[in-house]
């Protein structure tokens, strides 16, 4: 009885109950300490993310100057305005095309560079554009896409290839001397004589419109053609010389020959003979040309080929995408190469032993094993291209800017670029956020699944 009382009342030999411990988090940290450390981040998150989103949603319900409540009218305007619909369409094209191309290029680069000695150097070169800001890249590619082949690298290459396979105009912008020549404009930019030519009577075809010091190569002095009884002869020359002087319509000393000009003899609308002028400007046609009209085809005088209008309304969006791909292919390559380094080589070797060729190994083994990394790269780039602004704003010239506009650029132009409608701009910002959210949700869901593995 005494012992039981002693145990119940806590006798001299009993152990005292431990004090109640203060509440801690799972990680062993007091809750108020965790909140204290998270507070600066929460304040910044609220000030820089939550508040702007909330204010944009609220501002999108008011008119341009914010004085009148308009409800959802700004959202209605987005899908009824042609320029905004163009921006929506271009954004969809960016999301569908650019991330896929960058991911595929990154995959190809990552796989191929594993098989060459200089793979590291190649990766460094491909990744280098990532060190360049969007502003600098935009300026670079604005110069690359210049229309003038003497300034734009793209058109310099295109014109070089074109001129290799297609004959260039010999004397662009040259024209007959209307005061003394009977050559008159005809179809296709050509010039045809009003009279006919006769064998034994040399034809004179004087041209002007080009400076003697602008003639290609080292032209010779023009020479009057000698008469011949069995053929039609003549001279094509520049009827002008520096310093002036001489008789118009006559071959004077010091006047330059026009070499390589094509001359056609035409009877009843059909070409019966043709030739080109020699180094001294003279030419000869067979007896069949007797009684024919002479024609200088328009190909002699056509303007030079200046390449492709990269920044015109048709190609401006693909051209800007090209600059984006150039910048971000290195990013995709590095991430995919890191994932490729973790692939079990035994699986690849086993597939080869079983008789699979390299394409089958790549398609059925490598790509499925890299699928998680490819999804990460693709989703990251999709979010990135939805916000693209710098490249479009800098590269697209003013006449083509509306054709190349994306949602981020349209938001800026509507709000601050002369539109002055912050209500519509806020609505565009909300729409852009709503477009990004599904992609972010897919990415978050994927991350959660990976954690559960």
UniProtKB/TrEMBL annotation:
Alphabetical list of PROSITE patterns matching this protein: ABC_TM1
Entry GO terms, CC: plasma membrane
Cellular compartment(s): Cell membrane
Keyword Signal assigned: no
One Pfam family, short name: BPD_transp_1
Top-rank taxon: Bacteria
Name by which UniProt lists this protein: Sugar ABC transporter permease
ABC transmembrane type-1 domain mapped to chain residues: 88-443
Topological category with respect to the lipid bilayer: Multi-pass membrane protein
Region: Disordered, residue numbers: 1-21
Transmembrane regions listed in the UniProt entry: 31-53, 92-112, 124-145, 325-344, 365-383, 423-444
Higher taxonomy: Bacteria, Bacillati, Actinomycetota, Actinomycetes, Kitasatosporales
Similarity comment text for this entry: Belongs to the binding-protein-dependent transport system permease family.
UniProt-listed GO biological process terms: carbohydrate metabolic process; transmembrane transport
Provenance organism: Streptomyces acidicola
UniProt entry keywords in alphabetical sequence: Cell membrane, Membrane, Transmembrane, Transmembrane helix, Transport
């Amino acid at each position: 009885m005494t012992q039981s009382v002693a145990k119940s009342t806590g006798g001299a030999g009993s152990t005292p109950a431990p004090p109640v411990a203060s509440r801690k988090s799972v990680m062993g940290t007091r809750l108020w300490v965790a909140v204290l450390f998270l507070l600066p981040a929460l304040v910044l998150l609220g000030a820089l993310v939550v508040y702007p989103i909330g204010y944009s949603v609220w501002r999108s319900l008011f008119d341009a100057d914010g004085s009148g409540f308009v409800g959802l009218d700004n959202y209605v305007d987005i899908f009824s305005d042609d320029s905004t619909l163009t921006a929506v369409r271009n954004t969809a094209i960016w999301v569908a095309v650019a991330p896929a191309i960058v991911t595929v290029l990154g995959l190809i680069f990552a796989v191929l560079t594993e098989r060459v000695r200089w793979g590291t150097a190649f990766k460094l070169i491909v990744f280098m554009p990532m060190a360049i800001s969007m502003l600098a890249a935009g300026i670079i590619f604005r110069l690359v896409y210049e229309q003038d082949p003497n300034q734009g690298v793209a058109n310099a290459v295109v014109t070089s290839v074109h001129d290799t396979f297609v004959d260039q105009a010999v004397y662009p912008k040259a024209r007959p001397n209307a005061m003394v020549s009977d050559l008159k404009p005809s179809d296709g930019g050509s010039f045809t004589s009003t009279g006919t030519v006769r064998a034994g009577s040399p034809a004179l075809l004087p041209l002007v419109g080009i400076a003697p010091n602008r003639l290609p190569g080292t032209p010779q002095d023009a020479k009057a053609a000698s008469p011949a009884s069995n053929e039609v002869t003549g001279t094509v020359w520049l009827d002008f010389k520096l310093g002036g002087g001489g008789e118009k319509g006559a071959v004077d000393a010091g006047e330059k020959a026009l070499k390589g000009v094509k001359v056609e003899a035409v009877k009843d609308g059909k070409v019966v003979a043709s030739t080109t002028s020699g180094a001294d400007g003279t030419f000869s046609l067979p007896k069949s040309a007797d009684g024919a009209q002479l024609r200088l085809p328009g190909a002699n005088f056509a303007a030079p080929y200046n390449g492709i209008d990269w920044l015109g309304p048709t190609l401006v969006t693909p051209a800007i995408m090209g600059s984006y791909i150039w910048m971000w292919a290195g990013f995709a390559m590095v991430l995919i190469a890191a994932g490729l380094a973790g692939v079990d080589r035994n699986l690849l070797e086993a597939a080869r032993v079983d008789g699979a060729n390299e394409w089958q190994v790549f398609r059925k083994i490598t790509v499925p094993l890299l699928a998680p990394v490819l999804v990460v790269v693709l989703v990251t780039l999709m979010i990135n291209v939805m916000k693209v602004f710098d490249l479009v704003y800098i590269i697209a010239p003013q006449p083509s800017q509306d054709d190349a506009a994306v949602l981020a650029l349209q938001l800026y132009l509507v709000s601050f670029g002369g539109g002055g409608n912050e209500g519509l701009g806020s609505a565009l910002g909300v729409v852009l956020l709503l477009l990004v959210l599904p992609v972010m949700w897919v990415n978050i869901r994927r991350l959660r699944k990976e954690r559960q593995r």
